[in-house]
Amino acid sequence: MKKIGIMNSNISARVADMGHMDWLAVGDAGTPVPEGVDKIDLSVKSGIPSFMEVLDVILLELEVQKIYLAEEIKVKNPDILEQINRRFDGDVSIEFISHNDLKKNIKESKAFIRTGETTPYANIILESGVIF
């Protein structure tokens, strides 16, 4: 049994498989997932697990160089945006794109991790960096 880090075997495998500039998407319970994208569904009920809980565990293991967020998060969900900003603290590039473009770009991700989050625009695409 794995002792630390990501316990979900599907997420752990996806993170381990990430190469430089690969994408991994994490989002709220309502995010539509394009056909053909590996959906890892963690939602249990409304709010469980939260978007930030899942993101925090992923960030323990994944080196991130850039993130993509919906422009709409600035107005529609500033609390989540503030928490995301604290996690990255200026260490990664942030690109804001329209929510529609973010949803379209999920199809380029290695996987989409669905949380139980029920606040708007709680979605992110993580671009993998390198540790050297």
UniProtKB/TrEMBL annotation:
- Keyword annotations for this protein? Carbohydrate metabolism, Cytoplasm, Isomerase
Q: How does it assemble?
A: Homodecamer.
MF terms in GO: D-ribose pyranase activity; intramolecular lyase activity; monosaccharide binding
Question: Catalytic residues?
Answer: 20
Protein name as annotated = D-ribose pyranase
UniProt xrefs under InterPro entries: D-ribose_pyranase, RbsD-like_sf, RbsD_FucU
Task: Output the PANTHER family linked to this UniProt entry.
Answer: D-RIBOSE PYRANASE
GO CC annotation terms, alphabetical:
cytosol
Which GO biological process annotations does it have?
Answer: D-ribose catabolic process
Pathway stated in the Swiss-Prot or TrEMBL entry: Carbohydrate metabolism; D-ribose degradation; D-ribose 5-phosphate from beta-D-ribopyranose: step 1/2
| Function text | Catalyzes the interconversion of beta-pyran and beta-furan forms of D-ribose.
EC code(s) of this entry: 5.4.99.62
